[in-house]
Design a protein that fits this description.
The protein is built from 12 helices and 8 strands. The protein is globular, with a radius of gyration of 18 Å. It has helices at 10-22, 62-68, 87-100, 113-124, 142-147, 149-157, 160-173, 181-197, 200-214, 243-252, 268-271, 273-284, and strands at residues 26-30, 33-41, 46-51, 73-78, 106-111, 129-135, 229-235, 257-261. By secondary structure, it is α/β, with parallel strands linked by helices.
Length: 286
């Protein structure tokens, strides 16, 4: 078997492998779809829904989970089923899981791709969300949906090794070019997950969900009756969120609190993990 983690420092690798051993997935059948998800933390604590990024696996958020699970939260983190091709489908399935788990209200944290899903989730199920944290993500942009079409056409016909290479390069390419042990680990996770888990259907549906998100028509008044609060965390040097998109995102959530990081790009949750978690916990404690 290919050693994806050969360049990862042993202490980092041991922490990750220990996490894998100690966090086993639950499964749930909903309307013919098998969902997998992790639960962790304080079983009687306030529920915190953590939505992972485009890698679509709960364990891809392992560092954030590890830093939050020792607190006062009951964490729930889903894998995204490869058969679901819309953000709305993911949001509704996750809402059903919460209800099955006896959760009536939750804090919701979504970063990057998970931040797109978190926006759809709070718009479709505001009654389930009391605090919303959007991290390193962006608003719907209708014109961007068309830019996905060439990739979708290629994903349907290219050999799978090329499809996997395209996705690996895209995900690793947005990470800061720093020789950090943490970044070496996340790059290895990306390579392993894409190589061993990705199917053609999953690749296509990952992009179809992005198209579905960009076709949403959110406005600043959509959540005017919602009683929750929002924290938006962005980085001024994140290549995925230039200033124009940051302004558009803030305009959709006019009452949100904004924190702007510097120097950590799209990987603040990894490179500035302690400050990142401190800000989240302070916000949730309000």
């Amino acid at each position: 078997m290919k050693n994806y983690y050969a360049k990862v420092p042993q202490d980092q690798l041991q922490q990750f492998m220990r996490f894998r051993e100690e966090h086993l997935l639950k499964t749930l059948e909903l309307n013919g779809t098998t969902w997998e998800f992790l639960t962790s933390g304080d079983p009687v604590g306030h529920s915190l829904l953590l939505l992972p990024g485009a890698l679509s696996t709960a364990e891809s958020a392992w560092r954030t989970i590890s830093m939050l699970e020792d607190g006062k939260y009951r964490l729930l983190i889903p894998n995204y089923p490869p058969a679901i091709n819309s953000m709305r489908g993911l949001a509704d399935g996750i809402a059903a899981i919460l209800i099955r788990e006896g959760v009536t209200s939750t804090y919701t944290l979504g970063g990057s791709y998970g931040g797109m899903l978190a926006q759809v989730f709070v718009h479709r199920h505001p009654e389930l969300v009391t605090r919303l944290v959007l991290s390193h993500t962006y608003p719907p942009v209708s014109r961007r949906a068309r830019s996905v079409e060439p990739a979708l056409r290629m994903f349907r016909v290219l050999p799978m090794f090329l499809v996997k290479k395209m996705l690996r390069d895209r995900m690793i390419g947005i990470l800061p070019p720093k020789p950090s042990p943490e970044l070496l680990l996340i790059a290895a996770q990306i390579r392993e997950t894409v190589d061993t888990r990705l199917t053609r259907q999953a690749a296509i549906n990952t992009f179809l969900r992005m198209t579905d998100f960009d076709q949403q028509t959110f406005t600043s008044s959509d959540l005017s009756d919602w009683q929750g609060k929002t924290l938006i965390m962005l980085a001024e040097d994140d290549p995925t969120t230039p200033e124009s998109l940051r302004k558009q995102l803030m305009s959709l959530y006019p009452d949100a609190t904004l924190h702007l990081f510097k120097g950590s790009g799209h990987a603040t949750a990894i490179l500035e993990s302690e400050e990142y978690i401190r800000l989240i916990e302070a916000f949730l404690a309000q």
